[in-house]
Structure formats: C-alpha cells, structure tokens
C-alpha cells in the first residue's frame, strides 16, 4: 500500500488548527473514520442506505440536521446492487445518480486500496460506506493481528482526508461478552482505536421492532443522544425507515457488568445462513469465508447447516450450499 509520504517529526506551530466539520453531529465527522456496529440482521445496512439517501438528495437527519446534497460511494459485500441496493434506494427516495457502487468485487489489498484512493480523488464522495469491513480484508489476512489492521486503517484515514470524506465502516459484534461497549466489535482493537466516533445499532431492550443508535465512542464531541427508528414494511413494495425520535436509553443501560446479551453462536450462524442464502445457492468456499469474517467457527457453521437442513450440491468442480426451499 502506498500513501502520501509524511515527515516523521514536525514542529507543532507548522500545523494549522482545524475545526471538526460534521456530516451528522456528533455521530459522523467528515475527514475521519466512524464505526457503525451491531449484530447481524439488526438493520445496519438499512440504516447505512438511509444515510446515503439523505446525502444524495440533501435531506434531513433524525434530529432535524440538514445535510448538504452530495455524493456517496457505497461498497457492500453483502447486498447485491441490482436486487437490493438500487430498489431500496429508489424506495427511500434517493438519487441513484449521486450514489456510486462497486461494479466488481474490490479486495482492500494494495491494488484495491490504490484503486479506491483514485476513485475518491476523481469523484470525491461526501460519504463512503464500507459494509462490512472484514469482507474486504484480503484472503489469508488475520483480522485480529494489529499490524494487518493498522496499515489498512491508516490508508483508509488517508482516503478520508484526501476527499474530506466521512468514512463509515460497518462491522459485526463478536459473541464474546465484554464490560465495555467499544470492545464488542469483531477484529483487532485497533479498528475502534482508529475511529474518532462509533455507534452501536441494536434492538430496544423492551421492543425488538424499535432500533436504537447508541453513541459508544466520542473523542471529538460530547456523547450524542440515542436516536430510535423502525423499519416499516409496505404492502407490495420495499420497506422504509421511519425515525421515532430521541431515546433516553444509554449504552450504560444496555450493557451490564457481565456484558451485553448476545445471540447464541448457533442462532447467529443460522441467521447468517438464512440471509446469505436467501437469493439462492452460493459456493461453499464463499459461505465459509463470509462466516469466518463474522467469527462463526467451522464447527458452528456445520451445526447450523444441519439445523436448517442446508443442502450441498456439486456443480462442475465446485460445491454449493442452498436452503432447502431453494431446491
């Protein structure tokens, strides 16, 4: 990976002080990395698309903040652009001419990161969404090794600064329990360390249909008030996001000294398979790789296959997995 050469040491008086500029104050700053995290299936991608829509049309955020009309670069390894992203963006009232997506899979190796930097410099986006981060890690790289993550995040920080772009990285939570919310996300601690802001997307403890946006890291501003929303289905059409307003619930209310409640490993694996295979069969190797990015072990994945009755079928020289109702 190559990024702009910087001097190792410089005098502080040569640095001009800057004020933070916000896409969504105090949750998402420009020119910096923000983490959005939560359990699989809670609606992180849906929320990310809503943010993309508001930027594309110059809309409004839940607390009344106006968003300047801008451009979005939306990179998703989980949602298909034609079957999911475009229909949802249209249903939410977004402007697809101002939202760019990947035409082919992009691995964040040296070649991919340089391509991403060129794209950001060519058409600087106001918002760049990476959903989820670990799906873009090159094969064979250990997401728990600090040296792997530090180099990647350093380059993403350069990209954020080069385009004055708000970079939002989405990641899943681990199954392990921790007493602090910032330790719940998957991968090395360096991921949350590189972010200047982070928020948790989760279900309301008393109402699973209500989703919460809870500020868990706020280095450059006071903690933002929790916001709430629901995903409303429309007859014969795509679902929409309906903001419900602020909530008094804080991260302290959600996480006890024993850690936040987590889905069982098997429940998480079965939910992953239902979502990942819902559009038809997928290569077994692809299923296994995606499961690994979510910290689903091979043993748990096999248990989930059996629990759902997932089918295995050979096509040519490759094996594929499919839900039983897909055959």
UniProtKB/TrEMBL annotation:
InterPro entries noted in UniProt: AAA+_ATPase, P-loop_NTPase
Transmembrane region positions? Answer: none
Ranges for domain AAA+ ATPase come to 30-203
Q: Where is the signal peptide?
A: none
By what name is this protein known?
AAA domain-containing protein
Organism of origin: Celeribacter baekdonensis
């Amino acid at each position: 990976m190559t990024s702009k050469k910087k001097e190792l040491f410089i005098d502080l008086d040569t640095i001009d002080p800057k004020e933070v500029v916000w896409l969504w104050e105090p949750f998402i700053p420009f020119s910096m990395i923000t983490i959005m995290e939560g359990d699989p299936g809670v609606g992180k991608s849906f929320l990310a698309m809503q943010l993309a829509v508001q930027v594309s049309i110059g809309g409004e955020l839940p607390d009344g903040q106006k968003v300047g009309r801008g451009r979005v670069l939306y990179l998703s390894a989980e949602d298909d652009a034609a079957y999911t992203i475009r229909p949802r963006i249209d249903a939410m009232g977004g402007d697809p001419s101002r939202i760019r997506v990947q035409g082919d899979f992009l691995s964040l190796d040296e070649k991919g990161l340089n391509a991403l930097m060129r794209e950001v410099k060519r058409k600087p986006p106001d918002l760049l969404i990476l959903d989820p981060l670990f799906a873009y890690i090159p094969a064979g790289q250990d997401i728990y090794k600090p040296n792997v993550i530090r180099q990647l995040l350093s380059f993403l920080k350069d990209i954020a600064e080069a385009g004055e772009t708000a970079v939002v990285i989405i990641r899943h939570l681990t199954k392990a329990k921790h007493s602090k919310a910032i330790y719940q996300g998957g991968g090395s601690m360096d991921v949350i360390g590189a972010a200047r802001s982070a928020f948790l997307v989760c279900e309301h403890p008393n109402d699973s249909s209500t989703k919460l946006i809870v500020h868990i890291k706020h280095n450059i501003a006071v903690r933002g008030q929790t916001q709430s929303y629901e995903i409303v289905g429309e007859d014969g059409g795509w679902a929409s996001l309906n903001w419900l307003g602020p909530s008094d619930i804080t991260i302290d209310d959600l996480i006890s000294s024993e850690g936040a409640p987590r889905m069982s490993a098997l429940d998480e694996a079965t939910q992953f398979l239902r979502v990942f295979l819902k559009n038809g069969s997928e290569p077994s190797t692809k299923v296994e790789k995606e499961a690994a990015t979510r910290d689903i072990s091979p043993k748990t994945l096999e248990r989930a296959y059996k629990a759902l009755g997932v089918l295995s079928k050979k096509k040519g020289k490759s094996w594929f997995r499919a839900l039983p109702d897909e055959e």
